[in-house]
Every structure is written in structure tokens, then in C-alpha cells.
Amino acid sequence: MYLQELDSEKLKKLQWQIMQNVAASAIIPLMRIGDELGLFKVLADNGPCTDEEFSNLAKIDNRYGREWLLALCAAGYCSADEDVNKFHLSPEQQAVFAFEDSPALMIGAYDVLSANVHGIDSVREAFKTGEGVHYEKFHPCCFQGTARFFKPSYAANLLKKWLPKVSGVVEKLKDGGSYADIGCGFGVSTLMVAEEFPKAEVYGFDIHKPSIQKAQSIAKEARMEKRIQYTVADAKSYAGKFDVIAFFDCLHDMGDPEGAARYAFEHLNDGGVVILIEPTASDKPSENFHTIGQMYYSFSTMGCIPTSKSQEVGLALGAQAGPKKLEDILSKAGLADPKVVHRNASNMVIEARKI
Ligand SMILES: C[S@@+](CC[C@H](N)C(=O)[O-])C[C@H]1O[C@@H](n2cnc3c(N)ncnc32)[C@H](O)[C@@H]1O
Fold it and tell me: Does the C-beta of 150 come closer than 6 Å to ligand 1?
């Protein structure tokens, strides 16, 4: 029998916070369904429209269509007229949900969230055994979600804000330097670098074969397949020597980040530089207790920790390791002067050099 004295004000506040989180989570499957059935695009292209017109155009059952529209309106993700007869997406709602090439697209987050729900069984077992879960075992929407979720941020920041903060990198790449993107996934960042620096030699490596295959097909679509060489390889097994070695949102996923950093040190040309993009975090966990920290610690529990534990060493740094641990890893690997050169609300850029 539960008999503890409770502070009713504190309880009410906590319960309201939970209700908000529950409501936010309840919409996850609707977002996936809407995305997969192209419902956002139908609404963007045809709104304002009635629920019947919308359902006909989307080729879905009207009762499901209407309930979906009402749920999205309640969330503020869709708009309706006063009588709730006609539905549309505002320009901002279109920008975050409907157009794949929008610089504000956020729908990919729901791919990752759905993958995490699909992963419950395997990660729950890993909680008990302490084992890892191989990245390839995750639901496929994890891989596409990562690329879609990160792409707008890379598009806004990588070339304009992040690379220019790392001293000498832009000059090296403009002059035809060599660039290796380790753990490149679908090659979102790799393609951006190859397009921006036509003289640079660009390579992408990842242990996950389906991601490398997808990166190759994206490069082909962009007519960049001759400019980028993608290879399936572990962060401790790729061949070649490079002027710039990048780890974008992946060092903390690796089982042996120090081994990967040491391997990068050995595969850098003299004067070369390692760049990490990592989720923004403080070294003190208590300073990560906020909305972004909630998201990253949750993603980390379901994705980053199991991936790292499935690999050699299994250090399991987590997505909120903080700069100190990451800089120490780079130092121990022999890299000089590791430091954070830029940070925003979601990402930090760390550089270290071979001198
Ligand atoms: C969160 S994803 C980031 C992908 C990409 N860098 C991006 O920013 O879109 C992490 C990537 O690291 C890769 N990865 C994990 N461990 C690796 C390892 N030991 N060697 C190479 N790649 C690895 C995964 O396969 C995955 O593609």
C-alpha cells in the first residue's frame, strides 16, 4: 500500500509535465503514418480543403483522415478555419513537415523516435545483459531518420559556420586537400563538402553497408559519384592518409573512440586536423537536465549506448559526454590542442591537430 505524504502542488506540476510529454509522444505514430502516406504533402499542395477532399486526394479512408487532421490541429501541427471545416498547413508547418528539401525540415526526428520504439525489445534485453545492440539491427527508419534529421542543420551550419571555425580547413580543402568522413552514414555531410570544394579529394567510410550503399546512390543522383569514394570500413580499418578527418555525430557511438581517434592520428598527414561534431553538452550532467538534454539522453539510451556496447571496448560514452571527455580522448590519441571551436544549442565543433 502506497502511503507516503505527497506535496500536492509538486505532484500536480509533475503530473502536468507528464501529460505534456505523453501528448507529445502520442503523436509519434501519426507523424510516421502521415509522412509515409504523403499526407503532409497532400495538405501542403491542396489546403485549405475539407477532410473529405483531403482523404480523397490522399487516397485514404475519410474517418481516419479526419481524426488525423484533428489530432494534428490539437498539436499545433496543422491549421483549420474557425468551424473546423477546412484544413491547411501554414507556411511554417509546410516547411517543417512537407518538403524534403526545406532548410527547416524536422519530420526526420519522427523516424528516429519510431525506430527507438521499434527497438524496445532488443534494448530492454540489453539493459539486463549489459550487452550491446548492433547498429544494423535497428529499424531502417533509424538510418533514414538520422540523415533527414541532421541534414537541415548541416545545410545551415556546416559550410557557413562550422568548417570556417576550424583553422586552416577551408584553405586545405579549397587547395585540393584530402577529406575523410568517418561514420558518414548516408553521406549528407560528405556530399556537401564535395560540392563546395571541387578540388578536394573526398572519401566516406562507415561500417554499415546499407548506409554506404544509400550514400552511393545519393551521390549518383547528384552526379557526384566520381567525386566521392565511399567504402564500408570500421573507424579503425580504412585505408589512406588525409588532411582532414571528420567524425560527425558518430565518435560517441563507437565502441572504441580512443582507438578510432588514434587511428585517425596515424592516418592524418602532418599538419592535418580532426573535426568532431558532437551533440552540445556540459561536462556536468546536471547542466544537461533540460529539453535538449532529455532528447539526447533518450536517443543515447536507445541508440548510442547499445551501438557502442556492441563494438570492441564498448566504452559507451553516450551522446551527452561533454567536451572534457571528448578532448581527453583526442589528447590520449596523440592529437594536439583539442578544443571546442563553436557551439550552438544542439551541436558543438571540436578540433584537434597532428603537429
Ligand atoms: C548517428 S549516425 C551519424 C551519421 C552521419 N555522420 C551523419 O551525421 O548523418 C552514426 C554513424 O556512425 C557509424 N558507426 C558507428 N560505429 C562505427 C565504427 N566503429 N566505424 C565506422 N562507422 C561507425 C554508424 O554506422 C552510423 O552511420
Answer: yes
Ligand 1 neighbour 152 (Cβ under 6 A): no
CA of 16 to the centre of ligand 1 (A): 37
For a mutational test of ligand 1's pocket, the pick from 253, 302, 305, i.e. the residue with the most ligand atoms closer than 8 A to its C-beta, is 253
Q: pLDDT of 180-209, one tens digit each?
A: 999 999 999 999 999 999 999 999 999 999
Whether the upstream peptide bond of residue 48 has omega within 30° of 0, thus cis, is yes
C-alpha distances in Å from residue 213, one per residue of 60, 180, 229, 350: 33, 17, 11, 28
The CA distances from residue 295 to 160, 314, 318, 319, in Å, are 26, 22, 12, 10
- Nearest ligand 1 atom to the CA of 211 is 27
For ligand 1, say whether the CB of 258 is within 6 Å of any of its atoms.
no
Amino acid 157 reads N
Query: Is the domain covering 153-353 a CATH 3.40.50.150 domain?
Result: yes
**Residue 111 in this model has a pLDDT that exceeds 90:** yes
Compute CA distances 116 → 19, 69, 306, whole Å. Answer: 20, 25, 11
Cell numbers standing for residue 296: 539526447
Q: Does domain 10-97 have CATH number 1.10.10.10?
A: yes
pLDDT at 228 over 80: yes
Domain ranges for the chain: 10-97, 153-353
Please give the distance of CA 115 from its chain centroid, rounded to a whole number: 12
Q: Cell numbers of 264, please?
A: 585517425
Rounded to the nearest whole angstrom, what is the distance from the C-alpha of residue 99 to the centroid of ligand 1? 25
